[in-house]
Design a protein that fits this description.
elongated, 74% helix, 0% strand
Length: 69
Amino acid sequence: MFLFTLIPILFIIMGAIGVFFPRISWYLSVGWQFKNAEPSTAALVSARIGGIFAIVAGIFILTSGIFPK
């Protein structure tokens, strides 16, 4: 049952990284594949929007009772 609590918390943590540190989020997702690459503005905005969605999903899963306690 601990896993059912851990997954939404990981969603929230990764979402917060995407919102507050979009360059780190970009690097972890695609930036590591390229040498001396910089993210575009669109990539950074996308990372922030994805982070917001991840935080909302994590909070929803944590509070909705979808998973058994």
